[in-house]
Design brief:
- This protein has a domain of about 120 residues: Rossmann fold, CATH 3.40.50.
- A six-stranded mixed β-sheet has the order 6-7-8-3-9-10, sandwiched between helices.
- By secondary structure, the chain is of the alpha/beta class.
- The protein is about 35% helix and about 25% strand.
Length: about 240
């Protein structure tokens, strides 16, 4: 069943034509990845889906409801969370306060259960719950950003470059957590510069190039595709 459907969206940054007729879908229970070079339009696509940017034309539906014109906070309320590139945590606030900020769409009586769930996913955050978020390592801040996104109990979690700037061991841990989230029932839309690792855990993938989708297939097929290998997987 299609959870998210993006159809022929065209998006401009001022006068720059950034997204040129992109269409894709994410089915319930999948991990779907968008891969491509820097500047291909991956982050812009996620921002458009989450309501931070408006398409000039096209359609976006989530569980058969149109998202066009819907405010970002209302999209979160429908069951979609966006963990943006660069983490964007509240640097001066504690770990716990950051998590509470992620629960603004939830009834107050459910917040403690959600925090306990995030602590189960990320035990390091439980150890550091009083720590000022900006003093944590890059990997811990990424965990906090993902944990904050999970506080809204999303059906669909959009992750933008979760491995950026992290040491290889931490990258492996973040990807393991993404798989755990998916196995526990969260559908994932993943934008990731590390195309090889993204395709290794995804069900399907789409390749973006200068604002257009140039290829789409099962992730295992894209891993073997010679053109994709040369352009995005280091040969």
């Amino acid at each position: 069943m299609s959870m998210l459907k993006v159809e022929d969206i065209h998006v401009y940054y001022g006068s720059i034509y950034a997204i040129k007729g992109v269409s894709f879908e994410v089915n319930q229970g999948e991990i779907v990845t968008l891969i491509g070079a820097n500047g291909a339009g991956k982050s812009t696509t996620l921002k458009t889906v989450s309501g931070m940017m408006k398409p000039k034309s096209g359609a976006i539906t989530f569980e058969e409801k149109s998202l066009l014109g819907v405010k970002p906070h209302s999209i979160v309320g429908l069951g979609m969370a966006h963990c943006p590139e660069g983490r964007r945590i509240f640097q001066e606030m504690t770990v716990r306060d950051n998590l509470e900020m992620g629960a603004y769409t939830r009834p107050k009586g459910e917040i403690e259960d959600s925090i306990a769930h995030v602590y189960d996913l990320f035990p390091r955050l439980k150890e550091r719950f009083r720590q000022i978020a900006g003093t944590m390592s890059g990997g811990e801040q990424q965990m906090l950003a993902m944990g904050r996104a999970m506080m809204s109990k999303p059906k669909l979690l959009m992750l933008d470059e979760p491995s950026m700037g992290l040491a290889p061991l931490l990258v492996e841990e973040i990807f393991r957590i993404i798989q755990d989230l998916n196995r526990a029932g969260t559908t994932i839309l993943l934008v990731e510069q590390n195309a090889r690792m993204a395709l290794a855990i995804a069900n399907r993938g789409y390749v973006l190039e200068t604002g257009r989708i140039i290829a789409s297939a099962e992730a295992s097929a894209l891993l073997k595709d010679e053109t994709v290998k040369k352009a995005y997987l280091g040969g």
